[in-house]
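Fill-in record for Glycosyl transferase group 1.
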Amino acid sequence: MNIGVDIRPLLDAQLTGVGEYTYHLLNTLFEQDTHNEYHLFYNAYHVPPHMTHLWNDKPNVHHKPSHIPNKLLNASLAFLHTPHIDAMTLKNLDWFISPNPHFAAYHPNTQLLQIVHDLTPVLYPEFFSAKMRFLNRFIYPHSFKTAHHFMVVSKSAKEDLQALCDIEEKNITVAYPGLDPLFRKQAQPEAVRTVRERYHLPERFILFLGTNEPRKNIESLVRAFELWNPSDVGLVIAGKQGWSAPLRTKHNKVWYIDYIGREEKPALYAAAVCFVYPSFYEGFGFPPLEALSQGTPVMVSHTSSMGEVFGDNALLIDPWRPGELAELLPEYLTCHGELHPRAARIAFAQSFTWDTTVKKLLDILMSTN
């Protein structure tokens, strides 16, 4: 088969979220499948090194760049539904894979596999800037209307998709993402010491890692920490500043790190006494899984997919009640070993593999072709 793939999520120099998902999914797919021909679409003159790695030394993977100015291309796709980006890679494709809803238009004969991570733009538009709310009005309805099959990252995302878009169950496949191979090894003590020294971290600290934006609910975590006000534990908030990031507290035991490189993440997770993720809504939740892979105790919101994904392997919390979280934090730090043994946490995280995700993707392409 000839299969097109939109790799525009990989154009950022520093990958997070959807970009990381797209990279690991395609890297595993291209390693496993040497029979089908893949044609990669992107719109840029220059690409970061992680993109070229996907097609180097892979004769069945072809990259097809477009050089139309982004604003012009997006406007044309949004309002005129042209050009067909699948035809820009190769005419008469059997399938086209979209790793995330984007400005796009496709030839009517091309089967579109739309990957959906979450329905945040539809369910909670208030978590986005006015500009993004406007753009999402063009992106999401068109992506959902033109798709032939959907692959979603959790059962929760599937239920949201069915409820909001009236899509038949037979056209949706749930495929949990895998764990980044980097996290399949435990961070070494030397790496942990290096991270502590580089960022001047306290001996004992609670960690949040993710984009600092309203949906992540960092304000509730900071409020809970202030209510608890421990003398021997700090709070570290790591991750790049997103849209409408909350003001930083002046509490002397709260540390901020703007961006953590991929290679440093395992050591940072391993250094923490607990990882807390009070997000209001997630399609899956990579950071809690990564923290568990390093044996770190995890607390996550009971909302959306997180209760489904992490279940008995993390302590579920109410993201709307910082006072309750303030009471749970010291209790969980003393009893997490009994509730969630370290070896069990690591084994659970290791059970998520990209090989399994890719198998489900290939099953979709093969069974419905």
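KEY FINDING: The chain has two domains: 2-178+353-367, 181-350.
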